[in-house]
């Protein structure tokens, strides 16, 4: 695939910087084909990466532009991206709004998560414009630099998944807190409760990297022991409904827009 120039507006932020580092490290983009902009124009990239304080200059020098600024910062952004392929990482900003504000006819919305840092993000993406097969493959490969990725069939999938996979470590962190707090109430010393919960959330999560989670539940239920009793209690209290409502609450914010 021919060398494309990638510009990342907000490429010094949490997500933008991790993506920039990943595309460079994987060799997907050469340093002299990467441009970064932010408001200060300062960064810690190596000398070959061009860092600009002028977003329009970045747009003009780039084949593909990634928008990695916060939704509220988008209101202040003034770029003319006509004729460019634009990839927005912003939650809650519809493709039509981005297209109207920037003039870009090819707008992709993508939703990575904080695990870009460790190249373990799942990134759904949606193409709201005319995208060639070659461009599709390029977008997929871009997000595979930070983990796995899937093109989704409609824009609502992005709003829903913003509240599911876009939340990254939030759900396991919430489970960790619930496990620690309930163990402390049950009389377990706090430091021990924290280590125990860490083992569940982090150690257990790593084990699931090589196991099918649903088969794991079936296998543990089949023991009919301590774990099965705890899992059955969660099922009886409709954990799936609680989780489903939580994701819908987040998705409603994404659909309403920010
Ligand atoms: N973090 C996550 O886990 C996550 C997950 C899914 C989606 N997202 C989405 O990803 C986007 C970025 O999030 P983030 O967490 O990476 O935010 P962040 O760390 O705050 O980064 C924002 C970046 O944008 C730059 N910036 C702000 N206004 C700008 C402007 N007018 N022109 C150029 N650069 C500008 C900032 O640098 P200066 O201040 O120096 O200008 C900074 O580098 C958000 O839209 C968010 O919805 C984030």
UniProtKB/TrEMBL annotation:
Protein name: Pyrroline-5-carboxylate reductase
InterPro entries xref list: 6-PGluconate_DH-like_C_sf, NAD(P)-bd_dom_sf, P5C_Rdtase_cat_N, P5CR_dimer, Pyrroline-COOH_reductase
Domain Pyrroline-5-carboxylate reductase catalytic N-terminal intervals: 6-92
Pyrroline-5-carboxylate reductase dimerisation domain span: 155-255
Principal localisation: cytoplasm
Enzyme class: oxidoreductase
Enzymatic reactions: L-proline + NADP(+) = (S)-1-pyrroline-5-carboxylate + NADPH + 2 H(+); L-proline + NAD(+) = (S)-1-pyrroline-5-carboxylate + NADH + 2 H(+)
Pathway where it operates: Amino-acid biosynthesis; L-proline biosynthesis; L-proline from L-glutamate 5-semialdehyde: step 1/1
Function text: Catalyzes the reduction of 1-pyrroline-5-carboxylate (PCA) to L-proline.
Chain coiled-coil ranges: none
Enzyme Commission code: 1.5.1.2
Annotated family: Belongs to the pyrroline-5-carboxylate reductase family.
Record keywords, A-Z: Amino-acid biosynthesis, Cytoplasm, NADP, Oxidoreductase, Proline biosynthesis
Subcellular localization: Cytoplasm
Pfam families referenced in this protein's UniProt entry, alphabetically: F420_oxidored, P5CR_dimer
Gene that encodes it: proC
